[in-house]
Write a structure and sequence with these properties.
This protein is mainly α. The protein is built from 42 helices and 2 strands. Strands 1-2 form a two-stranded parallel ribbon.
């Protein structure tokens, strides 16, 4: 039939027949007739004319009844029809929600949404009727008591219905919520939500939470005020109870209280938007005041800003002045009121005295009591206690501890998400990062907190130190006198914190903090290391080094691996290996103290022997490398080092053990195989030197951490061989493969070149054979000059020497511009009184 009007009339008649048919009488004589009826309905739902579609949906609604459908119920077919219907309604109404239409069209949309919600309600009731009755979804030919394997089941249909309600039904309901003109429509929607909870509590809880975040709680209250209907009020009360239970399951309300039993709709006769005027007028019953505070408490946690911060502040003042004193509220209402104050203070960047002129003392006394009575797990409260010095000064540590106790690591990461907050006007994180009080509270937690809490506190430290360093060095801009003063003030914060951390570490070592455990010690030592990296002027206190040496040099077998690792890292920091330059290193007396501690040297020897694993071996190797950088230092018990074993590790191992060993091998050759800190055994033959040179060349070509260590090691090795075995040294320096190595280094290296790279290139250029090869290696000298030009603002002694060498040996090969560049770089040499080196 192609006439849409006749189709509409036909579906209308069929819908009337189905609706008025007695429920206790059979409607269909066979499953085949059921399928034919469903096929007709499917055709109507697929029709292009809206009138035919909606009439077909009216026909489907009464079909969704256990009494009308024969067993086995065709749940698959019903699910397909429900999906088609809701998808079509959403496409017809939801996607056109933003268009301007007349009053008649808006009324029609409400009616069409009503039809969809009525169909979904019938679906939910059918699911409830069929729940647990497996006979309804068995095949006619199935063995009794065997579940149908075709996928046609009430459970599958229930999932389809829940998905339809969640994806399209509830959004449609919310689009038409403000346009409803009869309590019956709202009753139907609310009853649908109540039935959904009976069907699947967990899925309904997630759906209700979405409604909560959309401000549905306040909408329910306004709905009660629009219609004076007892039936509607009871439906609202039932859904409101479900919403409060949902808030408990999501942690927005205490889970150990009967919240629905504590909350009543009686007396809630005003909109939330009008509370500022209402609370400032006549005195309300205390139960009404507390109910409104509960609603605001939930909405504020969900960031449903129904009232502005100014309105909330006025309401808080009116609560104290006209309603009841803070200490007269119930404990739960006091908690809600304190969170309201916290939210207003954070939003307005002010303290509590600016919000309520009366009642400050009552709030202060309340916050001095049990924190569990007023604490709300929300970053807003955490921000408040560090922004408001009037009330929160005594409870900062306890609030931060509570936050870290209840928060998971994802919440901590969200709180510290600097990139999302950097450009906002209210950058609460920046305010926390600039406050020394926050750092001091964090320090207390690190000193005595549990493993879980300390791990999250360390996550805060890592981010805060990095961010504070950024805002100190970057955000202040140029070094004007004003900015220099600000930088100095911020560095003073670091210095104070460094001193406090050092004191705490010393107390733990002296057993003055009985509540502290190994994880507290390691976390504080890690904070010291982070501060040393952020603030290079900070150096680990000698007392801390003394305690660390005694700890490692005593009964170290009883220490955990983590304590050993962090203590060794502290020693490593004192030797400046982590900081890169000798200017940043501690003075040799500290190194001397390390090298004269027999107990520590014994432990370091055990680490170098590989007794505690690869990671400890790597740190110990770096420590020895740092010791060898001081030529005049001697160990009271020289550390035994076998050169052939070190050669084997360098050429055969991998990972951190390998990288550290490459660095140590370079340090050993820089000493000329003679140093007061080590007792060196074993020597390499010429074949091993050639193999080592080839292996180091390969490492130099890698874009990894080991590449830098390999370049340094190769420089030390070649210098040693040129002095001790000149013939072999000259042979290795003049290998043709070195030019390819030089070419790749220039390609993969950052600008400017490192000192070790410059030294290696200088050694190659000093060789006669290499110079001859360079003359015929197309473009390599030019590439070297280009790289040096790019990094000329970072000129150094080594760069100057290399520039003068290139001018002397390749001036005829260079352009005038390239010669100017080299003369500019080479002019720095006079400042160092450096002569151009002789050829090898």
């Amino acid at each position: 039939m192609k006439n849409p009007h006749l189709l509409e009339l036909g579906f209308s008649v069929l819908a009337q027949v189905l609706t008025k048919h007695p429920s206790d009488m059979p409607l269909f004589v066979s499953p085949g007739v059921v399928q034919k009826c469903l096929c007709v309905v499917r055709g109507g739902l697929e029709h292009q004319q809206p009138a035919v579609f909606y009439q077909a949906m009216d026909t489907l609604t009464p079909l969704l009844s256990k009494n009308y459908l024969l067993t086995p119920i065709p749940f698959d077919d019903l699910g397909d029809l429900v999906t088609k219907a809701t998808t079509h309604v959403w496409a017809d109404l939801g996607q056109r929600s933003g268009t301007k239409r007349g009053q008649g069209d808006r009324h029609m949309r409400v009616e069409q949404t009503h039809k969809c919600m009525e169909m979904l309600s019938s679906c939910v009731k059918l699911c409830l009727e069929c729940a647990g009755d497996h006979s309804l979804c068995e095949s006619s030919f199935a063995v009794p008591d065997m579940d149908d394997q075709s996928g046609s089941s009430s459970e599958k249909f229930a999932h389809t219905v829940l998905a339809a309600v969640d994806d399209m039904g509830i959004p449609l309901m919310m689009l038409s919520w403000e346009r409803g003109d009869s309590p019956e429509w709202y009753i139907q929607c609310l009853n649908l939500l109540a039935d959904l909870d009976d069907l699947d509590t967990m899925a309904t809880s997630e759906l209700l939470y979405k409604l909560l975040t959309a401000g549905f709680l306040t909408s329910l209250l306004e709905l009660k005020q629009r219609f004076n209907s007892g039936i509607l009020t009871r439906s609202i009360g039932k859904v409101l109870s479900l919403l409060l239970i949902c808030c408990q399951s999501k942690g927005l309300l205490p889970s150990n209280m009967d919240m629905p039993g504590r909350f009543t709709l009686d007396g809630l006769d005003w909109k939330v938007a009008d509370l500022q005027e209402v609370f400032g007028g006549s005195v309300l019953p205390q139960s009404v005041v507390e109910s409104y505070l509960l609603l605001l408490y939930i909405d504020l946690q969900l960031e449903n800003r129904i009232l502005s911060p100014e309105q909330l502040a006025a309401m808080a003042q009116a609560t104290v002045d006209h309603q009841c004193a803070v200490d007269q509220l119930s404990p739960l209402a006091q908690k809600h009121f304190i969170y309201l104050l916290a939210y207003v203070c954070v939003a307005g960047s002010c303290n509590i005295s600016c919000i309520i002129s009366n009642g400050v003392g009552s709030v202060a006394r309340l916050m001095e009591g049990r924190m569990e009575d007023w604490y709300t797990h929300n970053p807003v409260l955490l921000h408040w206690v560090f922004l408001d010095p009037i009330l929160a000064g005594t409870c900062r540590h306890s609030v931060l501890l509570a936050f870290l106790t209840h928060a998971n690591k994802e919440e901590v990461v969200d709180l510290l998400c600097v990139e999302n907050n950097r450009n906002t006007d209210q950058n609460a994180f920046l305010q926390l990062a600039q406050g020394q009080a926050f750092m001091m509270a964090l320090l207390r937690i690190l000193t005595s907190g549990s493993i879980d809490v300390v791990s999250k506190a360390m996550l805060m430290c890592e981010t805060l130190f990095g961010y504070r360093s950024d805002i100190t060095e970057v955000s202040l801009g140029a070094d004007t006198s004003h900015n220099v003063q600000q930088k100095d003030a911020r560095w003073e914060d670091f210095d104070v914190l460094f001193e406090k951390v050092s004191e705490s570490v010393a107390k733990i070592f002296l057993k003055s903090c009985p509540e502290s455990e190994d994880h507290n010690l390691t976390s504080l030592l890690c904070v010291l290391l982070m501060l040393c990296e952020v603030r290079p002027q900070c150096s680990v206190d000698v007392k801390v080094i003394y305690h660390v040496l005694n700890t490692l040099g005593g009964k170290s077998e009883g220490l955990s691996t983590e304590v050993k690792r962090v203590c060794l890292l502290v020693i490593l920091a004192t030797l400046s290996t982590l900081h890169g330059t000798r200017e940043q290193a501690n003075h040799p007396p500290v190194c001397t103290m390390v090298c004269q501690h027999d107990g520590f040297l014994g432990h370091l020897q055990a680490c170098l022997d590989g007794r505690y694993g690869d990671e400890i071996f790597s740190i110990a190797t770096d420590i020895l490398t740092g010791i060898l950088s001081y030529p005049d230092v001697k160990c009271s018990v020289p550390l035994e080092l076998e050169l052939t074993r070190l050669y084997t590790i360098v050429t055969q191992c991998s990972g951190s053990r390998h990288t550290a060993s490459v660095g140590l091998l370079g340090a050993v050759y820089r000493t000329g195989l003679s140093h007061g800190a080590i007792s060196l055994t074993g020597r390499l033959d010429e074949g091993q030197y050639r193999a080592l040179h080839i292996y180091l060349q390969q490492l130099c070509l890698q874009e990894s951490e080991v590449s830098s260590a390999a370049v340094s090691c190769m420089v030390a090795l070649l210098k040693y061989l040129l002095d001790e075995c000149p013939e072999l040294g000259c042979e290795l320096v003049s290998q043709p493969w070195n030019l390819t190595l030089l070419d790749v280094i220039l390609d993969i290296s950052d600008v400017p070149l490192t000192d070790h790279q410059v030294q290696l290139i200088t050694m190659l250029v000093e060789s006669k054979e290499t110079c001859t090869q360079l003359q015929h290696y197309d473009g390599l000298v030019e590439k070297l000059v280009t790289v040096m030009n790019q990094g000329q603002n970072h000129g150094s002694h080594g760069n100057s020497r290399l520039a003068q060498l290139l001018l002397k040996k390749f001036q005829s090969k260079l352009t005038a511009e390239e010669c100017v560049v080299l003369r500019k770089i080479g002019s720095c040499a006079s400042a160092f009184s450096v002569n151009v080196p002789q050829e090898v």
